[in-house]
Amino acid sequence: MSRRSLTTLLAAGGAAAVMALLPTTAQAQPFSGGNYGLYGQEGQYPTTSFCSGTFRQIGATKYFEGMALKYFYSDKCGSFARIENSRLGCAAVLQRSDSGVGRNDGWVSETVDSGITYAYTKMGNNLNGRVSRALLSCDGHDLVNTGWY
Length: 149
Description:
Structural class: mainly beta
Largest sheet: 5 strands, antiparallel
Distance between the termini: 69 Å
Number of helices: 1
Strand content: 35-45%
Shape: globular
Low-confidence stretches: 3-26
Radius of gyration: 20 Å
Mean pLDDT: 85
Strand order of the largest sheet: 1-7-6-9-10
Order of helices and strands: HEEEEEEEEEE
């Protein structure tokens, strides 16, 4: 076997090994709109080392047909939404208002992955007079929200 064909064979085998390790189904991805990403911490998950451990649940858990919606806040990082016991086709949504009057200026959402029953959003920066709220949305319909904080 020539040196060139051995190199080609090894490269092809390495590529096949990498492809075998990748998931075969699509993973949920965050979506966003409006001016989301304008402020610091937006676009990051709450597990980032700067923010990890600083969040607390604000307000009561909201329920719709057994699915739970929770809103978490950190005075250091902002807020995020989490849904639990959810079905496919649902998403955790965080809406942020720049003016503090509850007008949705930016938003981020995260859908439920196949095989799990929860999802949580990236952070929204509702510091310095901005407010945000969490929503549970299924099949394009907002089912329940936390109100603005």
